[in-house]
Amino acid sequence: xxxxxxxxxxxxxxxxxxxxxxxxxxxxxxxxxxxxxxxxxxxxxxxxxxxxxxxxxxxxxxxxxxxxxxxxxxxxxxxxxxxxxxxxxxxxxxxxxxxxxxxxxxxxxxxxxxxxxxxxxxxxxxxxxxxxxxxxxxxxxxxxxxxxx
Length: 149
Hints:
With 149 residues, the protein is mainly α. It has one domain (2-146). Helix content is 84%, strand content 0%. The chain is elongated.
């Protein structure tokens, strides 16, 4: 019975994490598109549309996804017991998840700067930082699946 419950928690955590990371990709891509589009068409109208899109994406989709991912992850850790923290792969995964959370809040800062027309970053910058969740996802999955350490 305990194994079934643990497997269900793992599924919830992985599901929330994949949704969350996908949304991180989307917000970065919206910023890339915005930077490219704003230069070519009516900036004021387009800017208003993108500000609403980014604000809604960050506040109503990304933030709840991050919170649920953290809640389910903490519940899973609680069901496994604190002794799991003595394993190096768990520590490394935790560090990578914290980096992903910092990236989330950095994107939030970018959204706030866009909202007040204070963005100084280029489209190329957002293309580059859009790779951050990809790299972190690959590392997290590698550590969890193969537990090399």
